[in-house]
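Notes, Module 5: Reading structure tokens.

Key idea: the token line is not a picture. It is a compressed description, and you learn to read it the same way you learned to read a sequence, by spotting repeated patterns. We will look at two proteins. The first is printed below with its tokens.
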Amino acid sequence: MINRKKSIKASKVEIKKAETTDLESSFSVINQCAIDLRKKGMNNWDRYTKDKVLDIIRSNEMFLLLVDNEVVGTINISQVPPSFFDASDMEKWESPDSKAYYFTLLATSPNHQGKGYGSCLIGFAEEFAKNENAEYLRLTMFPNNKPLKDYYLNKSFVFRHERVVDGLNLKLSFGEKKLV
């Protein structure tokens, strides 16, 4: 029996840097994920408006996963920690002063989930960070999303702490993976 869950082979898959002309397709994927998360009781992606996504694209830190020229995934990769990080978060890392990259907005449109595209984007983020001589790849996530947390743990991420982020009124888990 063929395991179609992990089968990407039959399609043309590529990752490219997002451009402003990709706003509609990028926002569509992010918005689909926000709706899907909301149905599961998590509203942590509701803050991503079209204008905010455009700002992220303009920062040259968003990448898109395309399957047969259709945008089905996004990831934001930055050396700058997200704005809601504070000194207490930075102190909790295994090696706070080591060079690290942070990824956010890892999104795969719901009708393309379970096909390995998220793993493809994480692998891309790891290689990107390694090529920039980073020692760590870091993330935040909604801690109540146990399947997602297990997914990251399976990919060798270690969660260092959790806290309620002021201004967002969300509890987040802070995780990292050593790359070197």
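Here is the second protein, with the sequence above and the tokens below, as before.
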Amino acid sequence: MVPADELVGAVAFSSMIVRPGDTAVAIGVGDLPVLANSLIINAMQSAAIASIAEHLENGETTIETSIALEFHGGIAIGGELRTSANCTEVNGREITFICEAYEGERLVASAVIKRTAVERVSFLARTAAQSIKSSTTS
């Protein structure tokens, strides 16, 4: 991974128009026809990943390790979700992002997301080995 001072301050954005299939009702996580909160989180994660993608070494990626978030309101079908992610801290391999989600000027969600840089092949190998071990002990 590149030095921390090259990551801190990295910013990226994502956006989407809310479609009927994106609502809490459609995906079964609520009974209101508003954008499902899980898709707001996905958009924030997408922005976080994009903000540092060019700064990772070949074969390196990041995995989510924690998220602390607050929802401030919903977005109806046809509304536009815009998210931003700003890399604010690097502690070893742990990378912290401040994320915000807006509809127009209205803040609809905010979060602190932590992701950890990992070597892709090693991580996948470990995950596969753990899955095999879990399935044989069940």
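Summary for the second protein:
- The domain at 4-137 is CATH 3.10.129.10 (Thiol Ester Dehydrase; Chain A).
- Residues 30 and 107 are 21 Å apart (CA to CA).
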